[in-house]
Structure formats: structure tokens, C-alpha cells
Amino acid sequence: MEYQKTIAITGGAGFIGSHVIRLLVKKYPAYRIVNVDALTYAGNLENLKDIDQLPNYIFEHADICDERHIDELFGKYGFNTVIHLAAESHVDRSIMDPLSFVKTNVLGTAALLNSCRKHWRDNYSDKLFYHISTDEVYGSLGETGFFTEETSYDPRSPYSASKAASDHLVMAYYHTYNLPVVISNCSNNYGSHHFPEKLIPLMINNIKHNKPLPVYGKGENVRDWLWVEDHARAIDTILHKGKIGETYNIGGNNEWRNIDLVKLLCAIMDDSLGRPKGQSERLITFVKDRSGHDLRYAIDASKLKKELGWEPSLQFEEGLKRTVDWYLQNEEWIDRVTSGQYQQYYAEQYVKR
Ligand code: NAD
Ligand code: TYD
After folding, report:
1. pTM for this one?
2. Which residues of 31-68 are buried (b: 16+ CB within 10 A; e: fewer)?
3. Which residue out of 147, 223, 294 has the highest number of ligand 2 atoms within 8 Å of its CB and is therefore the one to mutate?
4. Active-site residue 136, yes or no?
5. Could you report the per-residue pLDDT of 29-48, keeping only the tens digit for each?
6. What is the CATH number of domain 5-194+224-253+293-315?
């Protein structure tokens, strides 16, 4: 079959990548989607088991830092689009081990850009390198204000610094080599298949097991939460309608203080688990704050709305209920990803310090 597009999606076995793949393979049977993933602790092919038999989906086990292997895949498939999500993505891990973030997020992105340049340089028409990034590159807000596409970069964790560096490399390839690129910077995502090192799935898992709920500092830090399927829809929109060389901010317009969010989750789970009201809240435990903890993130996504017509679709409480239901119905998934290596991470992050 002659495909209209052949898209490499890096990091497709992770949280957001798996939702992007699910959306694109189903919506566009004439696109061939190749999931390029190294299957680190965060990558899990089980995330895609409902679609992995579809004829337009292929998995390739590859590390983006291995330029030779990526070149081979370009030769094999002739990608005309790359949607780049592969990354080390957790701030607390970046504080423990910054260099692995520099390796994957900076050197890996550079290697991928280099492969695109080598394979596309004779013909950039119909080609696109779409880089998925984060609002954390903009740093930390005070009580008021929003990040726009014009906000200066001011990353403050090894994670956000490595993502900022990757964004700069993408724009450097655009300006220097005319590589057709687009970038989006999104706020915190939540939903199914989210690895339980991040706030929402970690709290759901701990509530379920009656374990302490470790809230950093006083729980006053604020994040802007977006339903992961709305992020995937935004990526679909930008893939098709985004302007080359532009950046688009994506956000939920949905700010929550961590402590209020954890209390809401406790209430939803008391209800789902048939526990008396207020029982799970008693598990909340304030623990030592994260070093360099950014106070507040909030995205102004009006450019994306005005220019490309995207808006978030799901109300937060409904999204959280669906997320809780998914975790309660997929106990095997969570038991498997929290066995082994996760226990060691959990001990280092929460028990030993
Ligand atoms: P994740 O940690 O769940 O998944 C990352 C995926 O990348 C995994 O499948 C992993 O195996 C793969 N990977 C890691 N290193 C690789 C390498 N060297 N080669 C190939 N594959 C590799 O991450 P996520 O939360 O799905 O985030 C995806 C992207 O979106 C990241 O670039 C992240 O910075 C960005 N982002 C995430 C959020 C969020 O709230 N999670 C918000 C904004 C932006
Ligand atoms: P996280 O999900 O790690 O996302 P990010 O740091 O990229 O925004 O954390 C979200 C917020 O929750 C952040 O302010 C840190 C806080 N947090 C806790 O209070 N306890 C936890 O155990 C975790 C993982 C996060």
C-alpha cells in the first residue's frame, strides 16, 4: 500500500506518545506510524496492546542517541515526518541523575535532527520535524501571569534545562539548515497509562494501598493540568495546521494547588472505593520539598485557539474520575510497572531521605 505519510513517533511507548499513536493510527489509516522507542523504565508496549495489530502500526526498538540505527530506520521507511516525544521526563529523577537527561534530551534530539537533515536535505517539501516540549522551559511564575510563546526561557531543573536546550537545537536547525520544524510546549498532562512516579498516578496508587501521600513542602505549588487525550488532539492539529518555524503553547486553563488536587483525588477515591468520606485524606503527609521547586506554571494557549482552533474538551473532575477508574480497572498494569526497579526508585526518593 502507498502511504500518504510515514511518521516516526519517538517515545511512542510512553505516556503521551502512546495516546498520540492511538489517535493517529485509528484516525489516519493511510498514514504509516512507526513507534521508535528504547523501552526504558517509562516505556511499555502494553500501553499499545489495543492497536498493535493494526496494519499501519509498526514498532522499532531503537535508542534516539544511536544515530547509525536511526539512519538505518530512515533508509528502511523513508520517514517524511518525525514527532519527537522520546525523553527522560521526570524532574525528581533529573535531580538524582542529571547527565542521563542531558544524554537523551539534548544529545538524542541533536542526533535525531542530524539524521533528518542528512536524509531530507535534498527535498524539504512535505517534511516535518515536530518537537514536543514542556512549559517548564519558561521557569517559574509568581502568583499571577501566564507563559506565552514570547516568554523568555528560564529553566531551573536539570529536566527543564535539558528540554530548553533541545528546543534551542530544534530552532538552530530551522534557522541554520532550513529544516522544517514546529515546537509545542505543553503544561502537565494527566490520564491513563501515566507512570506512577508523577503526582497524580502516584497518589492514586498510594491511596489504593493506604500508603502515605507525600506532598512536597506545603503543597502550595500550582500546576496547570491537561487531559492527555486533549494534548494528543492538539498535536494532531499542530501536525496538520501548524506553521513551520513556530512555537505553540498548549494548556488546560486549569490551575490547581497540589494540596487541593490531592484532596480532590482523595474524595473521588473514597467514593470509588466505598470508603467513608475523609478517610483517604488522613494519609496526606507533608515531606521535604523538592530542591528548586518551581512555584507555579500556567499557560496562555490563546495562540493555538485563535490560529488553529484547538481547545481543551474535558472538565477536570470528569477527567480525574475517568483516570481513577482506569487505574482501578487496570490493577495488573500498575502492579507490573511498580514491581522491581520502581521499588528501588521509590525507596531512594521517599523512604531513605
Ligand atoms: P514518558 O517518560 O512517559 O515516556 C518517555 C518515552 O520515551 C518512553 O517510552 C521511553 O522508553 C522513551 N525513551 C526514553 N529515552 C529514549 C531514548 N534514548 N530513545 C528512544 N526512546 C526513549 O514521558 P511522557 O510524559 O510521555 O512525555 C513525552 C514527551 O512530552 C517528553 O518529551 C516530555 O518532555 C514532554 N512533555 C510531557 C509532559 C507531561 O506532563 N508528562 C508535559 C509536557 C511535555
Ligand atoms: P510532577 O507530577 O512530578 O510534575 P512536574 O514536577 O513536572 O510539574 O509533580 C507535580 C507537582 O506535584 C509538583 O509541584 C511536585 C509535586 N509532587 C508532590 O508534592 N509529591 C510527589 O510525590 C510528586 C511526584 C510530586
Report:
1. 0.98
2. bbbbbbbbebebbbeebbeebeeeebbbbbebbbbebe
3. 223
4. yes
5. 999 999 999 999 999 999 99
6. 3.40.50.720
